[in-house]
Design a protein that fits this description.
cellulose 1,4-beta-cellobiosidase activity; about 35% strand; Glucanase; 1,4-Beta-D-Glucan Cellobiohydrolase I, Chain A; 15-stranded mixed sheet
């Protein structure tokens, strides 16, 4: 996956993040069910809920309602430094439906891309699956499979309805960082392999020092620090293209980075994490008729997405050796597409030989191998990972890395450049936010369990 510096691209001007807890809006987590399955097709329903990521929330002075952050700038009287920010700022509860366009019903979660509200509008969102009101649901993916249904029919070029696993703390960081008073209940502790620097509070402190407002997003910016961890993208998609991608890190718990050590646009490979990952995008890998409207996997209708995490020992204590994808649609099981790239074997899953071959065929830097590859992310999976659901647009690369030719100045006939049929002029956030006001994504029927038990 390409940089997510602009993952948080909302237009609700008072939506930010803090570590203390306010009292203006009661935090009530929308309920959602999911299932835990065992071999033989036995599945037990689990009562869960979701929580909105803290970076979207309103945060204000602890003794009043003055915004700690407005537009894309901090209030320096409340946040003269990072520590003071945590001491002075209170994080509020969320009105999920009316402010953010987030709703649940039974086993489904629907995220609207644009939600008009009393403050203007909210753009995009990110939520986490909860085990309780104060802890995220943790998943050990090794020797297991994860399945969900998704409807991407209303996601045009430039949008990404993404589900993934992040190596976050189960409590949102409260135990490790004493200044974090909000924790998982308020969606704190986000991290990813891009070492996201647009996160406003990291490790229980603000990210105000050295904050640079974005030139393209009036509500976002980049701080001195970033938040890093293993990331397993099981589904990045719109109606045109999809990819699944592991991203490993050298450290196996979430950690804070600083400046150029976070990588990013000016020093992409400077962090302790793999920003590129090892992606399986059927279109990029030579099958241009597999995924899309009216194709083998038809994005006009609901899709069941199965991801299997196979280990070298066939047990949860082994190391990850293969990530296999299966689709189910209209009662038909569809095996993953096969690679059709000169010089490559006909791989149909992510393995170390596949990853090495794609880096050579596409002439890409092997940051996957440099950071330990599948063996490294195995260690993160053993710690447990948090399930993330999101919808977003891209202020860095217009989502072209997912659904168009990227880089745009490269020959699209060169292996690895063409990733989808969207025009290279598509995905501009200002245009997408104006034209895709009805865009939504629905995730439902989440199942987790033994291999071949969830579909």
């Amino acid at each position: 996956m390409f940089p997510k510096l602009a993952l948080i691209s909302f237009a609700f001007t008072s939506v930010v993040v803090g570590q203390l807890v306010g009292t203006y809006e009661t935090e009530t987590h929308p309920r959602v069910t999911w299932q835990r399955c065992t071999r033989g097709g036995s599945c037990q329903t689990v009562q869960g809920s979701i929580v909105l990521d803290a970076n979207w929330r309103w945060v204000h002075g602890r003794t009043g309602y003055t915004n700690c952050y407005t537009g894309n700038s901090w209030d320096t009287s409340l946040c003269p430094d990072n520590r003071a920010c945590a001491e002075n700022c209170a994080l509020e509860g969320a009105n999920y439906a009316s402010t953010y366009g987030i709703t649940t019903s039974g086993n489904s979660v629907t995220l609207k891309f644009i939600q008009p509200n009393s403050n203007g509008k909210n753009v995009g969102s990110r939520v986490y699956l909860m085990a309780s009101d104060t802890r995220y649901q943790m998943f050990n993916l090794l020797n297991q499979e994860f399945t969900f249904d998704v409807d991407v029919s209303k996601l045009p070029c430039g949008l990404n309805g993404a589900t993934y696993f992040a190596g976050m703390d189960a409590d949102g960081g409260m135990a490790r960082f004493s200044t974090n008073r909000a924790g998982a209940r308020y969606g704190t502790g986000y991290c990813d392999a891009q070492c996201a620097r647009d996160i406003k509070f990291i490790n229980g402190e603000g990210n105000a020092e050295g904050w640079t407002p974005s030139e393209t997003d009036v509500n976002a910016g980049t701080g001195k620090h970033g938040s890093c961890c293993h990331e397993m993208d099981i589904w990045e998609a719109n109606s045109i293209s999809t990819a699944y991608t592991p991203h490993s890190c050298d450290q196996h718990n979430s950690f804070r980075c600083s400046d150029s050590a976070c990588g990013g646009r000016d020093n992409r490979y400077g962090s302790q994490c793999d920003p590129d990952g090892c992606d399986f995008n059927s279109f990029r890998l030579g099958d241009k008729t597999f995924y899309g409207p009216g194709m083998t996997v038809d994005t006009n209708t609901k899709i069941t997405v199965v991801t299997q995490f196979l280990t070298d020992t066939g047990t949860a204590s082994g190391n990850l050796k293969e990530i296999r994808r299966i689709y189910v649609q209209n009662g038909r099981v569809i095996q993953n597409s096969k690679v059709n790239v000169p010089g490559m074997d006909a791989y149909d899953s992510i393995t170390e030989p596949f990853c090495a071959a794609t880096k050579v065929a596409f002439e890409d830097r092997d940051s996957h191998g440099e950071h330990g590859g599948l063996a490294s992310i195995s260690q993160g999976m053993k710690n447990g990972m948090v399930f993330v659901m999101s919808i977003w647009d891209d202020h860095t690369a217009n989502m072209l890395w997912l659904d168009s030719n990227y880089p745009v100045d490269a020959d699209p006939n060169k292996p690895g450049i063409a990733r989808g049929t969207c025009p290279t002029t598509s995905g501009v956030p200002s245009e997408v936010e104006a034209s895709a006001t009805d865009a939504t994504v629905t995730y439902s029927n989440i199942k987790f369990g033994d291999i071949d038990s969830t579909y």
